[in-house]
Automatic annotation (TrEMBL):
Name of the molecule in the record: YCII-related domain-containing protein
PANTHER family xrefs: GSR2449 PROTEIN, YCII-RELATED DOMAIN-CONTAINING PROTEIN
InterPro entries in UniProt: Dimeric_a/b-barrel, YCII
Stored SUPFAM superfamilies: Dimeric alpha+beta barrel (SSF54909)
Protein species of origin: Heyndrickxia shackletonii
UniProt-listed Gene3D superfamilies: Dimeric alpha+beta barrel
Pfam families assigned to the protein according to its UniProt record, in alphabetical order: YCII
Domain YCII-related: 4-83
Family affiliation: Belongs to the YciI family.
Top-level taxon of the source organism: Bacteria
């Protein structure tokens, strides 16, 4: 599975209803139960939130984001989805991948 970082942005603070919150939590629970939610939560600035989701493709990640009631109802006006290349000891902190080599001067 690939990891995708989702940035939910431009929150409409003050417009959250209890019903919308419950729908959003149900969506998160479903993703968690399916093994697709790695981590999620809002930032302290109260304008953005992050989700790291596990799925096979960018298209699947976008579908998951667009099915989130917070996005469908416009509570977060915009979002970005990017695939994460996780650096760790097992992959030598990505030092040997083409992307890293292409960035070297």
């Amino acid at each position: 599975m690939k990891k995708f970082v989702v940035m939910l942005k431009d929150k409409k603070a003050g417009e959250l209803t209890q019903e919308l919150l419950i729908q959003h939590i149900e969506h998160l629970r479903k993703m968690n139960d399916e093994g697709k939610l790695f981590i999620c939560g809002p930032f302290k600035d109260n304008d953005k939130a992050i989700q790291i989701i596990l799925c096979e493709s960018l298209g699947e990640a976008i579908n998951l984001v667009e099915s989130d009631p917070f996005v469908k109802e416009g509570y977060y006006a915009t979002y970005e989805v990017s695939e994460l290349l996780e650096a760790n000891e097992e992959n030598n902190w990505l030092i040997d991948i083409p992307q890293t080599k292409d960035n070297l001067t």
